[in-house]
Amino acid sequence: MAVAALLTSCSGGDGEGTKAPEGLAAAEVCGGFAKDASTAAVLKAAMGSERFDDDLSNPDKALDRLRDAARDPQSDPQRPQTLKYCYLLPAGGGESLYIQLGTAQGAPGLSPGLASRVTSYTTGLQAFSSSGLGRIYFSCRLKAPAHDIVVETVIWGPAGVPETDLEQRTRLITLANAAAHQVSAELGCEKDGLATSVPSPTAHPSS
Predict the structure, then answer these.
(1) How far apart are CA 87 and CA 81, in angstroms?
(2) Dihedral of CA 105/84/122/157: which sign?
(3) Residue 112: which H helix or E strand, with range?
(4) Could you tell me if 88 and 97 are in contact, meaning their C-beta atoms sit under 8 angstroms apart?
(5) How far is CA 156 from the centre of its chain?
(6) Phi/psi of residue 44, each to 5°?
(7) How far is 47 from 139, CA to CA, in rounded Å?
(8) How many C-beta atoms lie closer than 10 Å to residue 98's C-beta?
(9) Computed over its alpha carbons, how large is the radius of gyration of the chain?
(10) CA-CA distance, 51 to 190, in Å (whole number)?
(11) Dist. CA 66–CA 61, nearest whole Å
């Protein structure tokens, strides 16, 4: 009996001691856009989880669509087909976060009504976020024969976050900026104007 007990102890008993953690670490999701420690920490804070599922993400397809748009001078940025670059769920269950990519004619500006509800940030051509939705527009200058495009990066955060949570706004725009950096590098964009660290807020709704 003593030998059997020792063997059970060494093997972890019912296997719980050797069970691999579910899901992916923040640095592993969606092609690694959150691979640096600071961005990974922001992702964890934004979603309240340290492990994620990204089975519905399709970064390669989204990038290919942008490459096609840059190569085709007849592509119509007024009718972009946005694709999910990253779709994350907490491994233990919870609210999703996803990032979409598309093309745009340019930075659209902010209407007075929208400006009163979002925080603006300094990155790319234009960036702004509420506590549930953020957008970054950045220019992608590619080498000929491809032509310049404007990439719209949209991030949808977990539902249920109060609109008064200004920290969540910065988390979302930081994650969108990290994804935009990865997209820019993959496409070979020049002079994208993206912030190299956490984007700075320039105008809160109360201003």
Answers:
(1) 17
(2) positive
(3) helix 112-115
(4) yes
(5) 9
(6) -60, -45
(7) 29
(8) 18
(9) 20
(10) 33
(11) 9
